[in-house]
Amino acid sequence: MNISSLVVAPEPGQSGAVMERLAKIDGLEVTHLLDDGRIIVVIERESTSEEAKAMRSIIETGGVATASLAYHYFEEETLER
């Protein structure tokens, strides 16, 4: 399991539109809108490659100026025998 948090900086005046677009990305949760217009999102994916795809989707979202990784957690699942 991979869980990451990103700080997304929208282009000026685009916070609301970007939040709506991001909310449509499966497995991504928009958690906060900061006073300065930046948006905090959380991604949960099964693999790092799927997580990278989600990050790419965020960066390519219309109205996004930058997206910065703020936190990453990785845990390999273990099988009980």
Q: Care to describe what's here?
A:
This protein is of the alpha+beta class and 81 residues long. The protein is built from two helices and four strands. The protein has a single domain, classed as 2-Layer Sandwich (Alpha-Beta Plaits), CATH 3.30.70.920. Strands 2-3-1-4 form a four-stranded antiparallel sheet, with helices on one face. The radius of gyration is 14 Å and the shape is elongated. The mean pLDDT is 91. It has helices at residues 15-23, 48-59; strands at residues 2-10, 28-33, 39-45, 64-74.
Compose a concise summary of this entry.
This protein has 81 residues and is α+β, with helices and mostly antiparallel strands. It has 2 helices and 4 strands, in the order E-H-E-E-H-E. The chain has helices spanning 15-23, 48-59, and strands at residues 2-10, 28-33, 39-45, 64-74.
Order of helices and strands: EHEEHE
Q: Mind telling me the C-alpha Rg?
A: 14 Å
Please report the distance between the alpha carbons of the first and last residues.
Answer: 20 Å
Overall body shape: elongated
Q: How many helices?
A: 2
Low-confidence stretches: none
Number of strands: 4
* Widest sheet: strand ordering: 2-3-1-4
- The name of the CATH topology is Alpha-Beta Plaits
- Give the full name of the CATH homologous superfamily: Lrp/AsnC effector binding domain/regulation of amino acid metabolism (RAM) domain
CATH architecture: 2-Layer Sandwich
CATH class: Alpha Beta
- Strand pairing plus helix content: what structural class? alpha+beta
Residue share in helices? Answer: 25-40%
Q: In the residues, how many domains can be counted?
A: 1
The average pLDDT value, as a whole number, equals 91
Main sheet, how many strands, which sense, barrel?
Answer: 4 strands, antiparallel
Report the β-strand fraction as a percent range: 35-45%
